[in-house]
Amino acid sequence: MSKRLTCDVVIVGAGMVGAACALYAARAGLDVVIVDRGPVSGGTTGAGEGNLLVSDKEPGPELDLALLSGRLWAQLAEELGGLGELGEVIEYEAKGGLVVASTPDGLAALERFADEQRAAGVVAGPVQDGALYDLEPHLAPGLPGGVYYPQDCQVMPALAAAHLVRVSGARLLTGCTVTDVLLKTDGTVQGIRTDRGDILAPTVVNAAGTWGGEVAALAGVTLPVLPRRGFVLVTEPLPRLVRHKVYAADYVADVASDSAALQTSPVVEGTAAGPVLIGASRERVGFDREFSLPVVRALAVGATQLFPFLSDVHAMRSYLGFRPYMPDHLPAIGPDPRVPGLVHACGHEGAGIGLATGTGHLIAQLLSDKTPDLDPAPFRPDRFPEFPEEEDT
Asked: CB-hemisphere CA count at 13 Å for 389?
């Protein structure tokens, strides 16, 4: 930077959450700068599948945020040129999700879970017998049924984040590392220091995802964000043989688990571009980026159990990413009372793509002193005043 920048809000992180925060803050009339040490979507966003889900969330604050976010995603699709045009740009698909049970008891449990979700505003319909195969003809035979969620959608995450940054009009600085959060003598935020100079702003939004704890530490506060590694397999391009996001019932339990150990559960979905994406794995191993053949094999086995035709399909590649895990599985959203002017928008684990619009919308409302559409209390960044140190290997 040739000179010191000033703005109303500086956002640290150019992933999907940072992009959404920039969009809604700019729409609220704020002058926004986005800073990222890498490119747009260079972290967790670029390693995601682009899921916008309600199906995997139990009633509570996260589901409320997911429902709000889903409505906002649909509005953006309409505002930015209609579903068709936006779909071409970011591969937005209102494809629906299908959760599949392997046993009658599992199906009964799924239907009970769906009953609870419906009471919270989710659209969920039981699917049994032949109706299951009407939705997904290539599923393994003999499955008793599942639950269909028409509100589940998908975007291509890297394209979506880049598009939201562009339409926000925010100034974007990539390849720019934040080295400190600047504080005034009274402890309030003054801006950030980067390896390319200072950016002065009364508000700093921490949208650094898995690295949100590091940004918080620069301001002198703790935020217990830990990396949770996951792999995705990508097949060769195929005709649209998988019509929805399809996953086994145990995926929901894995998402909610506190275990650091490896967990895998089959998640399979087609894409507008042709390849099938196969997940999902979860394990806390720090930021270890080493390829794991046993994990990828487990993903392949699970996927072929759901869709036997995949056993004859070539995998083109695999990739990994780190989900920003929080101990109570809720993101940190909103002002940090410990450092006035510091605002957090991170810790969404694997749901950041879907929850980004609601998060950005709430952040903009809070920055504008408007009554937020959702109660922000469950997402308070200071709800973990003390937490045990955890050393990941």
From this structure: 2
Query: What is the structure's pLDDT at 253?
Result: 62
In order, the DSSP letters of 6-42 are: E-SEEEE--SHHHHHHHHHHHHTT--EEEEESS-TT-
Q: Position 174: which residue type? A: T
- Amino acid identity of residue 97, one-letter, is G
> Is there a contact between 146 and 111 (Cβ–Cβ < 8 Å)?
no
Query: How far apart, in whole angstroms, are the C-alpha atoms of residue 338 and residue 331?
Result: 17
Bridge partners, 226 (sequence order): 325
* pLDDT of the residue at 92: 84
Going by their DSSP bridges, the two strands 226-235 and 315-325 should be labelled as antiparallel
Task: Give the CA diameter of the chain.
Answer: 68
User: Among candidates 364, 369, 385, 357, which has minimal Cα distance to 16?
Assistant: 357
Residues in contact with 187: Cβ distance below 8 Å, sequence separation at least 6, in sequence order: 339, 340
In order of 15, 219, 289, 344, the CA distances from 216 in angstroms are 17, 5, 23, 8
Measured in whole angstroms, the distance separating CA 156 from the mean position of its chain's CA atoms is 12
Residues 6+ apart with CB under 8 A from 211: 13, 43, 225
Phi, psi of 66 (to 5 degrees): -65, -40
Dist CA 175 CA 172 (whole Å): 10
Walking along the chain (393 residues) 10 residues at a time, the average pLDDT comes out as: 83 98 98 97 91 96 98 85 52 91 92 96 93 96 96 92 94 98 98 97 98 98 95 95 91 66 87 89 91 92 96 95 94 98 97 97 97 97 71 44
pLDDT of 1 reads 53
The answer for residues whose C-beta is within 8 angstroms of residue 364's C-beta and 6 or more apart is 21, 24, 25, 27, 28, 30
Cα 320 to Cα 348: distance, rounded to the nearest angstrom:
17
